[in-house]
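Table S2 (text version). Query chain:
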Amino acid sequence: MDVKKKLLLGLLAVVIAVLFVYFALPDKRMTTYLIEAKYDDESKTVEAVQTVRYVNTTGTSLKEIYFHLYPNAFKSEENLPFTKEELPFVYPEGFAPGFIEIEKVTINGLPAVYTLEEPNDEILRLTLPREIKKGESVNIKMQYKVKLPPARSRFGYGKNTVQLGNWYPILSVCDKNGWNNDPYYIFGDPFYSDIANYKVELTVPEKFVAACTGEEKEQKVEKGSKKLVIEAHKVRDFAIVMSDKFKVIEQVVDGIKVKSYYFTEGYGDKVLKFASDAIKFYNDYIGKYPYKEYSVVETDFYMGGMEYPQLVMISKDLYNKANLFNLEYVIAHETAHQWWYALVGNNQIRESWLDEGLTEYTTLLYIERYYGKATAEEIYRLVIEGGFNKFVNNSADTSFAKTLADFKEWKEYTNIAYNKGAMVFYNLRKLIGDENFKKVLQTYYEKYKYKIATTQDLIDVVDSVTGKDTGGFFQSWFY
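Corresponding structure-token output:
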């Protein structure tokens, strides 16, 4: 073989190797969480060691990094993320504190300089030993203990289930506005996070069944405990619900394993059907769900439902004959959040209407698909538009410019973020037509999947699909 041919083959080998690394090992360019956690049911505590390989994708050099410590919002009765009216429902057995204690932090193996910041020590500020530039990474290791409160909430426990939502130190988002270190607000979903990869080793009592974000890769039982190894790729958060009462049924829909975790007899199969129908319709109408598993979990949760990547919590209070349609509606809504929040992210503190309004209208599309257009129109007219119009009669300000800190009551938040938000999409569909509307949702999903989108991004997609300037339409709804 001549020298020229050898050089060409050598160069080809290098190119192939580079392409392999680039496409086969995307984890190297994404933040990764490795968490070893052990849950003790008697003390209702989690002890954990967490290593975060943070990759700076901000476009600027960083001198410090921030983490949210959401469990500390549950430390004192005076500063809880609930209204006074909610407290009897959240704490039916009375208040007791929940919190997270940071025991040790290292950066690249060396003791870290860190502080806990107000309110309620909800923010962990890490001072880096040196600046990290765009594309550089740093390894942060934490040892901590989490105490769960007796709360029927995203985070806490009730008589049937243990809820671990927003339970571990999670990175704040650094965007064009800087670090987003908002507290755990009373209203809405005050969680804004980026995509990351997770590997979680969770040890629970042997009798417990755990529903988790991601996929279970391994399970070992020894000495009364059960160790689960779970992996979740390109997700925005990691949630767990545990119970010693769970029964689980599942079915495969479009290659996705849909699971129903339940403890109320007679409703597990109904929930599985609702969830499967929603996945099937949204796959067709919006775009294929990229994860291999999706779980709907009956939970000691005091209010409706709550979305997390690959897992949604549904209140046990809906698992009865009187609430069967409400149960289906909530499942359809929370499942739509798998597209609008879990996959297409947004700043839920500053633009809560963007995911909630679109999710609520996507739920109406589900109703239209399975119950007919007349039923969807009636729900829109009576519940969404009707509810909003009643609210408007008693309110002077219904602007989308509100952040979560600006809302004064749940009625205000739900009417603006959910109802008015859904009204925007209802009227947008009428303006641009069914075919263009469907294309808008599909384009928006494909373009911003695994990313953070803004209202302007949505408007740009609408304009690109329709070939028109719809800025005036959106402006008329915003103020």
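Notes on Table S2: Residues 9-26 have pLDDT under 50 and may be disordered. The first strand starts at residue 32 and ends at 40.
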